[in-house]
Amino acid sequence: MHHSIELINVYVRLGNVEILRGVHVEAKPYEFISIVGANGAGKTTLLKVVDGIFKPDQGQVMVLGQDLNFCNKLSTLRKNIAVVPQKPNPIQFPIRVEEAVMMGRYGKIGLFRNPKSKDWEKTNEAMEAVGIGSFSKKLVGELSGGQQQKVALARALAQEPLILLLDEPTTYLDSLSRSEIMEIIHTVHHQRGLTTLLVSHDAQLVEQYSDKTYLLEGGKSYLIRGHV
Amino acid sequence: MSWTESLHFPFMQHAILAAFFAGISFPMVGVFTISLNLIPLRFAMMHIALLGGAIGLFLKVDPIFSGMLLCALSSLALGPISERTKLGVGTVSGYFMTLTLALAFILFYKADIHVLQAFSILWGNILSLTWLDLIFVIVISLIILSMIFLFFKEIQAILYDREIALTVGIPEKILYFLIIFMLGLTIAISMRVIGALLVDAFILLPAMGAILISKSLKQIFFFSSLFGFISGMIGLYLSFLFDIPASSMIIIVASFIIAFCFLIQRRSAMEKLMKIFSQRRMVILMILIIGSGNFKFPAAAMAQEGVVASTSLAGAIAKAAGLKEVRVIVSSEMKHPPEYDLKPSDLLIFEGAKGVIYGGYERMVSKLVETSKNKNILAIQINTETSPENLISQARKLSEIFKTEKEEKIWEENFLEKLKELKIKVASFSGKRAIVHRFAQPFAQWAGLQVAQIVSPGELTPKVIGEAVAKNPEIVVDIYHFPVAQVIAENAKCQYVQIINFPGVGNTKTLEDIFEYNTRQLLKIFQ
């Protein structure tokens, strides 16, 4: 079986600092992979490499069978990769929950077209899946941190991706919300048959949900749980 | 003249159309500016336009065209440069702003470009729009509106979070660069067409108000557009009603709207306000405002035989030529006539006038003549250099056109008599070594000063200052309307005097007054 994600001996340098130094990570379809490590270990950089935002200085990155070093249709590929960022940027303008979730569909809808009823269906399904269906008309800015994180997750699901990338999805939450979010992620991962790559500094929390866990330390990756 | 009657004049029709199109579309670009923190881009565009204008003057092509072209090219380059350097558009704009200003000043010096002429490309005015200007405004407005209509959802995602827009598969970079390009282009065109002051009024202020009260991005776009429209229309109307410069009035209205939005945001303050302005009172107030539209314009009483002079100096030359009814547009106290902000009455005086007399450096005059309904108006360009010989020759030229040779002859005799009298007074300091501002040169030469060096208007270079100081001058003669040379006097430890070219300062009115005033200034220094 092809890997959904495969990083082979990846080096990334940002400015004068070498962030990743020979990283190997692989995720088969439907696998739940966690990458743990201290703050500043390069976890977010690794996610951005998978999403094609950062190009590796050395090494190979294969995503859904495509070598990102030679991929010139990144925006097409990205329609199949959903990202839940660590912390949303400050909100620039008021936006309703359902509108924010609908954004996940924008890439698939394409230019010059408006959302159709099918897109609204997918949006509603995504909101229901993470338990925010009841406040779809509320403004995102009025929600708590945990609820805003659910909005980000719902947006990612509305995209109907094959790969889900999560960047510290529980960092800014209290312990109760952390477990709740992890349960939701785990459930949708199975229900939707996703390949999930989650980075976190909280190894204890994420290990129980993962098929494989890598430790990122000193720019290198170590498989600490599961098998290649 | 009533408000409705004023609509027959082309300048009012153009202003209303421009205020309408700019009002509904430019604030939408303001939403980008505020949300993406691109305010420095506006200042960068001003300086880029200035450099473009200077290049145009140097290459002898239309400075407006070269200014706009450079702005368009720069705004195309800004996005990719900021992405490559990872510095952000705001920071890169700051870099562009200072660099282009420096390059512009180097060009002013090395290519001997008239600074005022280059700066005047920044000073458009909504009351003096030509058809071409209007078409520019309409085209850019339609492009903005269609861009927002076509790419609304992508713009929404980019303004919400650029990284999210990228990760959901939107061509985020291309659209972000397009936003920056449109913003740069809108600023550049609107600066030239409606003036740098109104750029802020139309782009930023309505968007600020809309952001305060809206509950979604669609509402923000809608309200910013509505507020821009209201500011433009009411601002123009009030400008006409009270004969106040239009740009300033539009800004005042837009600022009131922002204050109002702020109050709406704070409900309790709003409730108090509503109690003060009960509905009935508001109706009476509206009737009073609309009713006062039927007022008499002082300018409308202008005599049919009159002429319009662009500046007080042109006016004084016209009077010297024997013309009786002379209306001056730019107030005599104005230090830089090209940046004068027009009032509606300035435009209306053109309608009854026989001729307009101007110096050529006031770009607005040719536009005013073009937009005037009065097609019989005679536009006469004169040389406003202030040497006695030139002033006499210009007065003669005007008197021949207007058949007032007899009156001119009488003036000429009196003028020469006066100069003879003054020449005796200045004889005591003739031969003194002087550093002279270029605009003060004719007077300095008449007064018999020994002109050791002429300095140009604009920023002085260390070399120019050094050379001037080394000439060991006894006096530095600067110009009141555009002073630059005080630093030379301070370093050379010599006398410093400011003289005038435009009557008005110190109660001066005529050309004789200018020479008398300037002589008095010199006498004060040397006695």
Q: How would you characterize the overall build of this protein?
A:
The complex is a heterodimer of chains A (228) and B (527). Chain A is of the alpha/beta class and 228 residues long. In chain A, the strands form 2 sheets. In chain A, strands 6-7-8-3-9-10 form a 6-stranded mixed sheet, with helices on both faces. Chain A has a 4-stranded antiparallel sheet with strand order 2-1-4-5, covered by helices on one side. In chain A, helix 5 packs across helix 6 and helix 6 runs parallel beside helix 7. Chain A is globular, with a radius of gyration of 17 Å. In chain B, the strands form 2 sheets. In chain B, strands 2-1-3-4 form a 4-stranded parallel sheet, with helices on both faces. A 4-stranded parallel sheet of chain B has the order 6-5-7-8. The longest helix of chain B has 26 residues. The chains are: A alpha/beta (228), B alpha/beta (527). Chains A and B meet through helix 2, strand 6 and helix 4 of A and helix 8 and helix 9 of B.
- Strand content range of chain A: 25-35%
Beta fraction of the residues of chain B? Answer: 5-15%
**How many helices of chain B?**
25
Q: What Rg of chain A, in angstroms, do the CA atoms define?
A: 17 Å
**Helix-residue proportion of chain A:** 25-40%
Low-confidence runs of chain A (pLDDT<50, min 5 residues)?
none
Number of helices of chain A: 8
Assembly type of the chains comes to: heterodimer
Number of strands of chain B: 9
Strand order of the largest sheet of chain A: 6-7-8-3-9-10
Low-confidence stretches of chain B: 295-304
Largest sheet of chain B: 4 strands, parallel
Radius of gyration of chain B: 26 Å
| Total number of beta strands of chain A | 10
The helix/strand order of chain A is: EEEHEEHEHHHHEHEHEE
Shape by Cα distribution of chain B: globular
Q: What is the residue-averaged pLDDT of chain A?
A: 91
Gross morphology of chain A is globular
